[in-house]
Amino acid sequence: MKLKFLGTGTSQGVPVIGCTCEVCTSKNPKDKRFRASAMVTTDENKKILIDCGPDFRQQMLINQENHVDIALLTHEHNDHVIGLDDMRPLIFKSGKNMPLYSSERVGNEVKNRFPYAFVDERYPGAPAFDLHTIENKPFEVLDLTITPIEVIHYKITVFGYKFKNLAYITDAGFISETEKEKLHDLDVLILNCIRKFDPHPAHFVLADVIKLYEELQPKKLFLTHISHHFGLHDIEDKLLPAGIHFSYDGLEINF
Hints:
- The chain is globular and about 55 Å long.
- The termini are close together.
- The chain is an alpha/beta fold.
- The strands form two sheets. A seven-stranded mixed β-sheet has the order 6-5-4-3-2-1-14.
- Helix content is 20%, strand content 27%.
- 40% of the residues are buried.
């Protein structure tokens, strides 16, 4: 299996509109970050999309991806769901509704934001989704066991997802001891890390990630959901502790 980072940025993306900092004006492609999203490809070449933000169309085109079998949604914030309407070409091509897996709360928000996708008589050009409500327990889909990981993002719960020995967690500021039990003995752990310094009320910063790395001891840890406040990729990646790595858009990990 493999995971490709389609986007590794925060809700504003990088560069940020109107910002002239060294990261936002960098010419290095690794300093340009779409909103956070990932594509998991199974051994049977099935495609599992994690989150569908406002950059979904460009992410698919740039990465020459042309198919999604199912989508997993972590939570309902716009940078993680507002691109769902752009799934229409995939839905039209397949002739089937797109399966979306999420908590009940997130599913209800999808209905609220895309009501035209759920009416009995849809406009011919509207998207069509099948909502699948999941709870905080493993579920089977595409001959694969997926384990949700419940984390806290300010005051709401967010699902991370574990596939085999890889776990993907975005938009987290707290992980309970119970949920940490799912994160031991991983080959790859992916964690959000919004910046190096200054505690954040809803996201991990680098000190939090280092502490979790030392506690959970995955073989490799990759940072995602990175803001322009963190610093330049080529400089900061070399300064990270051994075993911790910057991600960048288009990076692919085999697991």
